[in-house]
Amino acid sequence: MRQSWHSLKKYIHDLNFQTKIKLAFLLISMIPVIVLGSFCFSETRSLLINQSKSDLNAALNQSALTLDSQLEAYNKIVNFLSFNQEIVNAANHTYTSTFEMYDQIVNVIDQNFYTARNLNASIEQLTLYTGTNLHQHGQTVRPLDEIKKMNWYPHVMDSTNVLWFSEQQRIFSVRRVLNTKIKNPKDNILYAKINYESLLKPFESLESQGGHLLILDTRGQLVYTSEPSGVYPTSLYSDPSVEEMHWNGQKYTVLHSEIPTSGWTVFLYKPTNLITEKAWQIVSTVLFIIVGCIAAVAIAGTLFSRKFISRIEQLRSNMKTVEEGSLEVTVHSDSKDEIGDLIRGFGNMVVKTEGLINKVYREEIARKEYEMKALQAQINPHFLYNSLSLINWRALRIHATDISEMAQLLSTFYRTTLNKGDNMILVSDEILNVQSYMKIQLIMHSNSFDVEYQIDEAILAYHMPNLMLQPLMENAIIHGIENRDEGGKIKLSGKLEDGCIVFRVEDNGIGIEPERLTSLLESKPTGYGLKNVHDRAKVMYGSEYGLTIESEVNRGTRVILRFPANE
User: Fold this and answer.
1) Contact of 92 with 84, CB cutoff 8 Å
2) Is the pLDDT of residue 369 over 50?
3) Tens digit of pLDDT for each residue in 109-127?
4) CA 363 → CA 47, 128, 358, 370, 532, distances in Å?
5) In 3D, which of 103, 104, 112 has the Cα closest to residue 77?
6) Angle at the Cα of 49 (from 274 to 30), degrees rounded to 5?
7) Phi and psi based region of residue 493 (left: phi greater than 0; alpha: psi -120 to 50; beta: remaining)
8) What is the pLDDT of residue 264?
9) 386 pLDDT band (50/70/90 cuts)?
10) What residues form the membrane-spanning segments (predicted)?
């Protein structure tokens, strides 16, 4: 993430000035456009949703009111029949004559039921379930024993009101037929079945607009659902006040209304995207305006930046000419702005520079060139390598292998140290430099200590500043294991960790006192060489990189060098 951010910053930093001006114009103009566009969209969407909810709620309440009026009309019919004294007497009389029974069924019960059904064609069935000895008569008169096992029977017998029930797409009302004029009246129940489709017809318009309908009774039992599968969101029953819900992977807006006559609750849930789809028309308009504004700003920014940059381009061209060695200035400006001042200042600087060059600089350059050549002759690495090669050859002639090895190690050490004057070196060459140095030290110390290397091959192809490890190894020898009697050991390890190369130099020497350890990398160098390495790493890579020192007295020291991996 950090590398990506640095890459983006570098990319923006390297853009030409004209492009930066265009981008600045675009960004400055896009901020208010985007803010206003977002505000417009948010407010419009909220307004449309509230308006749609209000319209849906009004339509739902109107449909619920229509259904309630129908149920109230059916209740009046049922109550009228239940309190009809002729029907009450017929339902509570014990018959001894077949003629008398036939007369009551035909002239009283049939006649009143027929009249009631003619008044409202939606009543599909009227049935008197009686506990008297009236014979069964089609669907008009049935024995009470037929319904005693129905789950709604106990509720009806405990109530004196008209109750509404639904079973398998059948909606019906039930009421007890009471007789308060005799001591032991019979149990009688009036049953009215209502046409399912006509009763729910007020909600057809809501369903045709993409809404889903659910009607539950007071016990939470299903009265009606518009879902073809019959499966409905049960969460509406557990939380009837919910206004939004997620069901079947879609977000719904939920409205509900009550039917006072039956105690039913009507839920209308509609996909929110259907409610908000009108907002996208306005969003498209806003986006078109935003794109038009951006295009206008881009054109204006291009024209302005081209006019603004032209003088800078001329100045840049003159600077490039000066860099190539010519001091002729062809750009002039009488403008009073900053660019005019810059052009005039550049012209004056070139004139003064030309005078200084003619007076001093050329002679100074010649003198420096002679000094540089003399210095190069003194430190010419070829002279050093040839001398070491001669020593190696003569040592081999007299079979002095230790001198030969020392000469070869010195040759390798100085070759990697000088590194052809380059400050950066391959990790593999830096390791070779350290190994050559340590072999020389082992010869000088008669192999009185051990050296171990654990270098991950993955880091060998990376680059690093040269001469970073040798001071650490030298420090481990001089200030660590040389003060031990015997058994000294130095370990160098290196690997990749979180995009960084981490080297660890560990020794089992005498360690460093805690009070000295805390100021070792902050104080001036005292011969350890650690602060120099630490400062180089911080200057090249940043303050978060460099050395970390861990040490215990009489147990040893670990120095950790950390810097970014760079191929």
Assistant:
1) no
2) no
3) 889 888 888 888 888 889 9
4) 82, 131, 9, 11, 36
5) 112
6) 95
7) beta
8) 85
9) low
10) 21-39, 279-304
Helix (H) or strand (E) holding 563: strand 556-564
Distance of CA 369 to CAs 110, 362, 378, 379, 381, Å? Answer: 133, 11, 14, 16, 19
Domain locations along the chain: 84-199, 200-278, 327-378, 422-564
**What pLDDT does residue 19 have?**
72
Q: Which of 472, 430, 432, 449 is nearest to 559 (CA)?
A: 472
Q: Which residues contact 89 (CB under 8 A, 6 or more apart)?
A: 179
Q: Which of 456, 413, 402, 414 is nearest to 436 (CA)?
A: 413
Q: Is 356 exposed, middle or buried (0-12, 13-18, 19+ CB in 10 A)?
A: exposed
* pLDDT at residue 137 tops 80: yes
Contact between 90 and 137 under an 8 Å Cβ cutoff? The reply is no
Residue 456 tokens read as 């991950």
Q: Do 84-199 and 200-278 have matching folds?
A: yes
Residue 59 tokens read as 């339509």
In the predicted structure, residue 69 carries a pLDDT above the cut 80: yes
One-letter amino acid for residue 444 of the chain: M
The answer, yes or no, to whether residue 225 has pLDDT greater than 90, is no
Question: What local confidence, expressed as pLDDT, does residue 393 receive?
Answer: 65
Q: Looking at per-residue confidence, does 527 or 302 come out higher?
A: 302
Tokens standing for 120? Answer: 């409202």
| Residue that the structure tokens 């171990």 belong to | 452
Question: β-pairing, 123-130 with 141-143?
Answer: parallel
Q: How far apart are CA 206 and CA 275, in angstroms?
A: 13
Q: Say yes or no: domain 200-278 is CATH 1.20.1200.10.
A: no
CA pseudo-torsion sign 29, 31, 34, 40: negative
Fold of the 422-564 domain: Heat Shock Protein 90 (3.30.565)
H-only helix segments in 158-278: 196-199, 204-208, 235-238, 272-276
Mean residue pLDDT across the chain: 79
Q: Report how many helices (DSSP H) and strands (DSSP E) the chain contains, helices first.
A: 19, 17
pLDDT in tens, 175-212: 998 877 777 788 899 999 988 888 888 888 877 777 88
Residues whose CB falls within 8 Å of the CB of residue 179, separated by 6 or more in sequence, listed in order: 88, 89, 91, 92, 185, 186
Rounded Cα distance between 175 and 177, Å, is 6
DSSP 498-527: TTEEEEEEEE-SS---HHHHTTTTTSPP-S
Rounded to 5°, angle at Cα 171 from 167 and 174: 100
Residue listed under structure tokens 């309440």: 61
Could you give the dihedral angle defined by the CA atoms of residues 326, 327, 330 and 335, in that order, rounded to the nearest 10 degrees? 140
